[in-house]
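Open question from group meeting: does this chain pack into something compact, or does most of it stay loose? Before anyone orders reagents, we agreed to write out a predicted structure and look at it together. Recording both the input and the output here so the notebook holds the full record.
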Amino acid sequence: MPLTAEHPQTGKRIALLSLCFLTLLLGACAGQKPKPPTAAELSVAQLQYWTIKGKLGVRSPRDNGSANLTWEQRTAPNYRIHLSGPLGAGATVIKGTPAGVSLQQGSQPPLRASNPADLTMQTMGWPMPVNEMFYWVRGLSAPSSAPSSERRNAQGLLQSLQQAGWTLNFSGYENHGPYVLPTKIKAATNQATGPVQVTLVIKEWNI
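Structure tokens returned:
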């Protein structure tokens, strides 16, 4: 059968459909831009110095227990985290400086590394993500890795977050001066040795 010439109206329809498809595609790409920070995020991001007092509970294949926690944060990356109680094996001090991180348990010689998660994994059997916690304790996602998902309430406060291999739930907030800060965070992750669950209850914020 001989081929027939394309009708002029058919060509116009194809061109119009192509233009519409391209417009929709560009609109979809534009809709995938990162969300701008909320007013709550902009506020707490200004908070760089604090002392936190609270309780840390951990369930892991190697150890189950709790410890009193005091976190003194100065100019990043300078911080001192003190754990006392069964989980801290009496007393554990984690220090961050520009030169790296050290961890000391009781009177034992301090261990040093570039990453606090490596030190806590080695000594306590679970990776304490201090670098990310610097943001999580303020109700922020860490900029080091894009979150795979997050959920906020009507006030823009973080309710749940999946980031850096951890799933977090924020179940309490309190006003502290100009800031609204978390008071309870539950976090869970899966390691090669098994699942780890961590609960941080912040009883006192000193800003």
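Observations to bring back to the group:
The chain has one domain: 39-206.
The two ends are 85 Å apart (CA to CA).
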